[in-house]
Structures are given as C-alpha cells and as structure tokens.
Amino acid sequence: MTGQSRPYRPQDVRFFDQLSLAAVRSAVSTSRHFLRLTLFKWQAAFVEDDALLITSELVTNAVTATGVLTDHPTWGELEKLNLVQVRLVGLRDSIVIEVWDASPEAPTPMQADDDAEDGRGLLLVQQLAERWGSYRPRAVSGKVVWAELAVRPPRPTPLPRREKSARSTIRPVRPDVGFLRRVPTGWRWPSGGLLMARHTGMTRAVRARGRVPLGVLSPDRP
Ligand SMILES: Nc1ncnc2c1ncn2[C@@H]1O[C@H](COP(=O)(O)OP(=O)(O)O)[C@@H](O)[C@H]1O
Ligand SMILES: [Mg+2]
Fold first, then answer.
1. Which amino acids bring their CB within 6 angstroms of ligand 1?
2. pLDDT tens digits, 80-120
C-alpha cells in the first residue's frame, strides 16, 4: 500500500529523532548506526533487521538522486553538496522511517515481474513495510520517501510445562543389603577401641578391646 501524504498526524507522534547527513555514500552506514541506536533507545530493537534494510534502500536512493557518488569527493564537489535527512518516528503500534532528499522526483518502483538486476530496492521496501509512499513537504523543496513498520513486541516465552501423563524414568533405588554388608565399616566399640573390618575373607583388622560382635560383620550370618 502506498501513500502520497505524510503517513501520520503530528498529535500521534510518541517519539521522534532525526539526522541530517551530507549526501555521500557513507550516509548509508551512518544512518544505519543512527537507526540501530534509536531503536535500542526506544526498546524496539526487535524490528531492527527490517528497519535497517529499508533505511539502507531509501538512503541509497536519496544519495543516488541528489548526492556525490565518487568515493573521494573533490573540494569543488563538496562545496555544492546536498543534504539528506533520516527521520525515525515512533507511533503507538508502528515506526515510520522517513528519508528526505532535495530531488522533487517521486520514486518509481519497478514491476515485480521485471527480470532486471537493478531496481529491486523499492520492491524490497514494499515487501517489508506495512505501507510506504512519498510526499512533498510544504515547508521545504524536495520530497520524503517513507515506510511504516508494525511494532509487535515478542511475547515472553512461557516456561516449559511437564506433561501430566509423562512418567518419570527415574526408578526407586532398592538397597542391596548384601553389598552394603561388604562395604568397609568402622565404628567405635563402647570400650573406646576402633574396629576396622573388611569382610572379604582376606583382611580383618580388629583393634578393639573387648568382645567384637562378629555376627554383625559377617554377610553369612544376617
Ligand atoms: N529518492 C529518490 N529520488 C528520485 N528517484 C528515486 C528515488 N528513489 C528511487 N527513485 C527512482 O526509482 C527507481 C527505482 O528505485 P529502486 O527500486 O531503489 O531501484 P534502483 O535504486 O536499483 O534503481 C530508481 O531507479 C529511481 O529512478
Ligand atoms: Mg535503490
């Protein structure tokens, strides 16, 4: 959907930020930085990917239409340099990216079924944006090309819930009484000596004074 007038009413603007740049190639990357920082500031970074693609296309077009495209502009070229302006507007449920340049010419998107390599920038904008268009501001010459993106904050992911019917795979452990009896054991005999016993049939060290209840140590005699 396109529009030929400003896509919002001044009273609906919640946030607003803009940047004026010399119309040279580096304006594209600078406007991307500006957009990223502004979206972060507005807690709307989740629309960043689409917003950056749109901004790159619109600013590239603005620089191509009115700017100096050589990598190292000469002094004379810089003297008559135009400006481009990037503006980000925050509405209730959307953001609007506006790019102003000094050319009065309206953008002319190519037909979607055209096979040409070039001329796909505005088609991309058309695909990503809810609406887009251009208008000629009353106060200044030139025109603004704009695109609107819906802002739908992602819902918080709920914690995973356990299936009611799911059975635990953990089995209760039954003590192996026979094994426990073979484990090295130590305790104090009432007379104060320490009994060390290892029931393997090989070692039995007893340092206890008094009677030792061998029956307790022996697995053969439960
Ligand atoms: N800001 C602009 N000012 C004037 N003409 C423009 C502007 N943006 C786009 N156009 C016109 O629309 C055409 C299509 O733009 P686009 O889809 O971005 O393709 P491309 O930039 O590759 O030509 C451009 O070739 C140009 O003629
Ligand atoms: Mg283009």
1. 57, 61-62, 65, 101, 103, 105, 107-110, 118-122, 145
2. 899 999 999 999 999 999 999 999 999 998 876 666 777 78
Annotated domain spans of the chain: 2-150, 179-217
Domain 2-150 -> CATH class: alpha beta
Distance CA 162, CA 137 (A): 58
Give the pairing type, strands 15-22 and 83-90: antiparallel
E strand or H helix at 144, and its extent?
strand 143-150
| Measured distance CA(149)–CA(51) in Å, rounded | 7
Instruction: Report the predicted TM-score, pTM, of the whole model to 2 decimal places.
Output: 0.72
d(CA 49, ligand 1 centre) in Å: 21
> How far apart are the CA of 100 and the centre of ligand 1, in A?
13
